[in-house]
């Protein structure tokens, strides 16, 4: 018997599909396909971005010819290829898709440009090119985040640059904020590199350490890495006296979130990223100023850039193409942000899929409508620089090898006393790879 439309809609409701349990997903997909044997197969999206449940709902309401279901995957890149008894995805959306192994599991999408379904000029060109392999476009950029330094608006007079700060400028300005009591103990400290492993990583990359994947292994520029660590050590010694002083100060005063740290008056600067910054409650955000961190006019995109691709064994490629064409559209994304605001969905998530949109006009024209502080400080398009080539399991590799080494290396000038990068890499390879 043909089902009624209310029953059919219930089968395709994306909010009832975004689940984290494999068994529930299996039962759910089975129920979707049992709704009607006459239905074309819905487009299956694998993602860990919760926003796509709302995006799928908007797409399903906008037209009647294609339906989308969303399946939650904690790590979409690591979930490929699907298990033998698992329904394969049509679209995959997530981070860490751009590596030599994972990217080959997607279909080239160049034909979407030639068939005029998508205009390639809408994207930040450097981000679009990052999804390219051997002159074939396998992945389309969805969203990205950038590194920033934040400070209390009361300290605007200390920061002379209006949009960007180099590590040198952060250091020199932070020096002006330092204060000590009669016992020669810091009561205020502008900033210390050792407070933020992410800051250590971003600066190391900006200065040419060049952590990257090559020939299926982690590589880096040893000479530039050593020079960067010398730079951090010199900063600590000349500005904050010692690593002990930096860490003691952090223990005493910096136990709250970064925004609270700068508003407390204990420190001048704190490191953050755009997604964290613009997910800050409005009453606090209006008290915060920020600058993008750069070196030689390069602002590094965070490694977790979000991409979208059609899986090579997609069962509904035309439907996937329809969703991509709908989603990669300035008007669509404006409506999605408008809907998120109306439903108060942007309280915990920023912009499009948790970041700036890879569609340049959306970021430059639409975002300032909903994030007023961007009116005075949009990231310069020509400065945006994609990450280096990544390896499979890059998130684990970064968290368990690169970041621990940088943190320990920044805390000592005797580099021979710490575990080497090669040793950490060998241990990680045995345990996690």
Mean pLDDT metric: 88
Using only C-alpha atoms, the radius of gyration works out to: 23 Å
Could you tell me how far the N terminus lies from the C terminus, measured between alpha carbons in angstroms?
51 Å
Helix content: 25-40%
Biggest β-sheet description: 6 strands, mixed
Please, how many helices? 17
How much β-strand is present in the residues? 5-15%
Short description:
The chain has 433 residues and is α/β, with parallel strands linked by helices. The protein has 17 helices and 18 strands.
Give me the secondary-structure topology.
Layout: H1 5-11, H2 22-34, E1 43-47, H3 51-62, E2 68-72, E3 91-94, H4 110-114, H5 125-130, E4 132-133, E5 136-137, E6 140-144, E7 147-152, E8 164-165, H6 167-175, E9 179-180, E10 186-188, H7 197-206, E11 212-214, E12 217-219, H8 222-240, H9 243-253, H10 258-264, E13 270-273, H11 274-277, H12 282-285, E14 288-293, E15 299-300, E16 306-310, H13 317-327, H14 330-342, E17 356-357, H15 360-370, E18 384-385, H16 394-410, H17 421-432
